Amino acid sequence: MLMILTENETLVDRNDLGGLIRLAVIAEQEGFDAVMLSEHVALGPSANANGLPPNPRMYAAPGNQDPRMSWPSTIVMAAAIAQATTSIRIVLGALITPLRHPVVLAKDLATLDRLSEGRLVVQPTVSWHEDEYAAVGVAFDQRGQILDEQLEAMSRLWGPSPATFHGNHFDFTDVYCEPKPWRPEGPPLWFGGQSLHAPLLRRLSLRGSGFHPFGTPTITELEALDAAMAANGRSIDDLERIGGTRATFSTSDDTADVMASMSSFGEQLAAGYTTFCMKPSQHTDDPTDVREICQQMVAHLATLTTQ
Questions:
Q1: DSSP for 265-296?
Q2: Which residues are bridge partners to 276 per DSSP?
Q3: What does DSSP assign to residue 189?
Q4: pLDDT tens digits for 87-97?
Q5: Is this model's pTM higher than 0.85 or not?
Q6: Cα–Cα–Cα angle for 12, 190, 116, nearest 5°?
């Protein structure tokens, strides 16, 4: 099980960052395998262009977010969680990589990976919010090309020093980037998105250790992923598959039933998913309930996997 720590403002006050760390500690104590932090660096007026979700506990999606929504720095938060926990994985989900220079980001991620003793997982993404790119002066229409260069540049920076890279967006020669990550190849990388487009297939098949889709991939998309993996001498079974709860809400201000939200776990297990995300605020407004909800989810998943 994986607990999502961001987007929980109906459960933890937006300024209570320590409350998010306490949730991570509970998740670890109750047998969760991972916690996840998603991000935005800055939101603009178009963040809610599609309107706000009917229930504030629903997942944040492209175009449905209040520009005032709190998104703490994932790298700072991950460092605090690493020091408050000992075994749980810390996933930087939806890390909007093109907003950062790869030399700086490689240093930050390697430091985090060392600090957590190899518990860091990174999901690089280009995201969807053009205002965010404008705020930091990065070309939105080149974000995919930028990400591909960053992935290669960071791979070299995490390898033996000195590192050299010459690209269209980044260029450096004989750079010593220390410390190195916990593993020689760097932290595990997850990739995902709303659809399995060609660049995502390429990144997954070349560099991915996990597949974290936003929604349910079609059979055609999974066949394309299987073919892309095979073309690179890999199997789709090499990828950790990330699914999750399917919370439903009856009104604009209710919480979702815990067992009902897990009703598709058996089907997801049969389809090859092994890690399941949950967002605690979807099931309670009271932080004291979170421990029991975690226990219930872990027990239910254990029952399904032993059948």
A1: HHHHHHTT--EEEE-GGGT-S-GGGHHHHHHH
A2: 243
A3: B
A4: 999 999 999 99
A5: yes
A6: 60
